[in-house]
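job 3f2a | input accepted
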Amino acid sequence: MANKSHWETIYSTKTPEQLSWTQDVPRTSLDFINAFYLPKNARIIDIGGGDSRLVDFLLAQGFLDITILDISEEALHRARLRLGDKAAHVKWIVSDITDFQPDVPYDLWHDRATFHFLTAQPQVTRYLSIARKTVHTGGYAIIGTFSDNGPEKCSGLPIRQYTEKDLTQELNNGFQKIKCITEDHLTPFNTLQNFLFCSFKRA
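job 3f2a | predicted structure (203 res):
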């Protein structure tokens, strides 16, 4: 509950321009997703999607089955307000990812910057167990985390940095690595954060 309260406060008191992870265009995520050539009826879930603009671009591309999961109800409320009538075409789930109990399989699991907030190994194990159950065989996962050259904290919380080897090893049981890249994300307040993005296929 303390974790949920933290994120509700963040999204209730800060504008997108005050949040380090804000992107006008989530280019890297879109590039990874488009490389899969998914059909427009593919089931896509964005873990920790908050008020990210990824959903705006996915809708614009014609994807029909999009779910956004976030621990913060306020974050999802902001996203729905931004989308207006288009929000009705998206499924919205308020949940801590480690409590998530999916009722359908997904073709694509996307997570930009939720995974690295799981600093205790039991949390990581739980997350990966849910991901394995959620992504069907042949489906895909994209995970973005702070790299070992990235920040050690975000929004006042400690995070876990990852190298390509670390992230691949964590997902090794059930997922086969496709590609990893690192990139510098320029925050709205002109600081750089080094990210690691990896894509995987469900084995």
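job 3f2a | Residues 39-202 form a domain with the Rossmann fold fold (CATH 3.40.50.150).
job 3f2a | closed
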